[in-house]
Structure formats: structure tokens, C-alpha cells
Amino acid sequence: MHFPEIFEALLQxxxxxxxxKDSFLNPAYDxxxxxxxxxxxxxxxxxxxxxxxxxxxxxVFSDYDADGIPGAVVLSDFFTxxxxxxxxxxxxxxxxEGFGLNLLAIDECAERxxxxxxxxxxxxxxxxxxTRANEKGIxxxxxxxxxxxxxxxxxxAVVNPKRADSTYPFKELCGSxxxxxxxxxxxxxxSFGIKLGMEKWSLDMVGIATLSDMVPLVGENRILARFGxxxxxxxxxxxxxxLFKKLNLDRKTLTEDDVAFMIxxxxxxxxxxxxxxxxxxxxxxxxxxxxxxxANHLEKINQERKGVVANMVKxxxxxxxxxxxxxxxxxxxxxxxxxxxAGLICNSLVEExxxxxxxxxxxxxxxxxxxxxxxxxxDLFKLMEKASDAFIEFGGHAGAGGFxxxxxxxxxxxxxxxxxxxxxxxxxxxxxxxxxFTITLADVSDGLWKMVSQFAPFGVGNNKxxxxxxxxxxxxxxxxxxEGNHLEITLGNGVKAISxxxxxxxxxxxAGSSSCDLHAHLEKSYxxxxxxxxxxxxxxxx
Length: 542
Hints:
- This protein is of the alpha/beta class.
- It contains 17 helices and 16 strands.
- The strands form 3 sheets. It has a 5-stranded parallel β-sheet, sandwiched between helices.
- Strand 12 (466-480) and strand 13 form a beta hairpin.
- The two termini are 29 Å apart.
């Protein structure tokens, strides 16, 4: 079965014209744009080459998340391959230092004897810090993908596809991809004796970052994600091997979901719990014994993080349950909470209360900071703009963001945002793919799976298709997993439909129901090396 109608509809809903069909379904590495099209790339490339030739100390300053840290590994790979040792790495403490360059970090780089700082995934907004570096005789190359403000810092080079004057054909690269482009540009001019194409082994890091950073999986990102997954499946890195072993992941069948739900949280856990350098050390480790120690350490940190978040979610829910009235937007926080964990609490509360959520805590310097997550496609950035004077600063995009505020404005923030939400009601369009495709239970087959998987990897801008099965006969319903907290429905022909961290109540499935209308994604599980086609529940009506 080929399912031509669904195939054509999937192309259409993604806006893929007939002439672009082949390049979308078969991404080609040689279709990546020339890195020299990026603004300031020539200056950046030449400055790095001269720093190596003159044996200047280089500090790589990366953001602390699952985009910045893999980007630091991309540069680490490059310097290792060229045999350049006069380099050090700086990853800021999420809680104490916050996002981007800071003045104390610049002073620390000067103490290390730096003549050049290369940023990854940050720097576009850091005017004061770049000025301080210039005063100390340090050149700064910014590689970033965040929106610029009115002016750019006085850096030696600002390599950013989103610069106002950028003519780069694709604007949506993540931070790691931008720094990978810098490596490509350097090697195109000066190979330093490296075999042509060796830099492709760093695509595993670019793939992790692209899949982690919620950038649209179209254009160049689709190419980078597809080839990144290919390299991840055969990467020689001891750190990845140790992590895969620890997580019981079979690298041969690794998918974008494994990256997003298994690898990304462990990289992010390191910074959320105050040790971002440990994630960098794991991914760049060369000794298998050290790699195994670091993988165990990261898993332990991630478990601790889960415990802290669970307690914070419990506390937030308890606080919300005591309220007489709840706004259309929820704002909740506690000065004792770590802002670095706020986004994770948002996710739980959005799921529970089905509305946009803003969660705040207090960071190391006493500032109230938080994260927000959207619900039902409301544009959070527009929402925050409507109440912009309530924030010290804010940023982000439609689905997620961050903010800082005063204690005074926090007290009225829920009311203000709830009013603002009414004004943008209807502006927010829910998930770009509302369409579901009606199929029968008999259609759930390897043929349908083969057709669907041509569209992978899935993510932002390329959502997994949702299939609807009307009157799907229910054979059995049970809870599974160590703690019995996952839902499994076996359908009439033996196909399983599952939902993690769910119960029949989660979907208002009535006890004893003999059938239901099921909305689900199709996926292939390789648990315990047994390939099994199954459905991942999106919604149920019975």
C-alpha cells in the first residue's frame, strides 16, 4: 500500500511545490549554502587563521544549553584536528551568570591571556561586554542566531544570519550550525593538513543542536538534521557511546525523538544544575573510562533535576489549587525557585491547566527571572509585547520565551497578561498541522510507515502527521512501566496505542469502552531490539 493521497496531502500541508519534492525528500549535503554568504564571515575566517598562525590564546565562549554546548564541541573538534592547543573554553553558570557574555567573564578571559574570543549561540546583544573586551585588547568574533537590536556590538566580526543587513539565503540556522559554517569557511581557505570533508564528523553535534533548539526543520536545517542523525548513528565519540549505553539506546535506530527526549535533557540538566562544563567534557571526551564516568554523572544529575522539578511542580499546583480564580494566563513563582528550571515547570502546568504559563524564580544576583510556554498556538512574543512595560526585559518566540521583572510588577502580571490574551485571541494559530488523516486500523502497516518516514526528521515546521481512526475497537487497556504510569491500549488487530505519563482519565476514556475515535502519530519502537509498529496517542474521544 502506497497511500498516494496522504503522501500528496503531506507535501501540500508543508507547502512543498512539485519541483521541490525531490530536494525535500532527499536532502543533499551539497545543497548547503556557501558559508561565505554569511555576514562578516571573511573577517571571522581570516582572524581565526591568523590567531592560529601567531599562536594567540583563543577562548571559546558558548551558551550553556543543548545548542551552545554542542557548538563548543564543533570548535573543539576543529582545534584538535589542526593540533592547536592554545585554546580554552568558557561556559557560563546559568544561575549565577545568566545568558550571554558578562563583564566578569571578559575579565577572566583577559586573565587567561586571551587575544581572541569566539562566541557560540550568544553575543549579538552584548554591547558593554564587547566594549570591555576591546579595551583589554581582545578581539571578539560573535557567532550567533538571535535577533539583533537596533545596533550591533563593536565586535571584530558578527556572523549571524539574522543580522538586519544579512543576505544569507536561510535565516533559521541554530547557533551550532553557524559555528560549523565558520569551520567550513576556515577549511576552504586553509586546510591545516586536514583531509577534505573531515569536518562532517562534527555534524553529530550540529544535528543534536538543530533538533534541540526548536528551529524549523526546513531548508538547511532539514539537511543538517538528517545528516546529523546519520553521523550520530556511527559517531566514534566515546562520550556518545557511553551515553547511549547508559540510556539503552540502539544507535543504529536512533531517531529525532531519542535526541529530543533522551539526549537533550541530559545536556541541559548539566547547566540547570550548575555544571554545564560537564556536558561539554562528556561530548568531547576521548577516554572511554572518563566518558563512562561522565555519562553516569550526567544521568545522576538528571535524576536530581527531575526530583527538584517534581517538588516545584507539586508546590506550584498546590499554590494554584488554593486560588479562588485562575487567569486565562497563569503566572506563578517563588523567590526560592531556580529560574533555570522554570521552563520545565511551565511544561507540566501547560499540560495540566491548558493555558499559557509564566513561571518565575530568583537568580544569583537577586533578579526575578522566568520562562513561559504557550498553549494552543498563542504567540507568546506578541503577548509579552502587549504588556511590555511589566517586564525589565523579555525575549523568545511564539511558543516559548524568557523574561525578568520586578517584584512589584509580578503581583499584577497574571491579570495584565490575561487581559492581553483576549486582545490577541485569534491571532495565535494553533499547531501548524491541525489536519488529521482518516485511516482504518488495517492501514496501520509497514507500507504506511515507509511513506511517513520519508518526511522525517520531524520537528518544528515539519510536524508528525496525525492519523484518525474512527471507532477503533478496544481489546484491552492497561498501565505499564516500572511505576505503572504509562497508558497502553491494545486495539482490535493487536496494534498498540500508547501514551507516556498518562492514564485512561488523562483522555477521559470511559471504563469498559469497547471502541474510541483515536488521534495518533505512527511510530516504530525498537525496545529490546524488537521492531514494533505502534501508535502514539494524541487524543481520544469515546
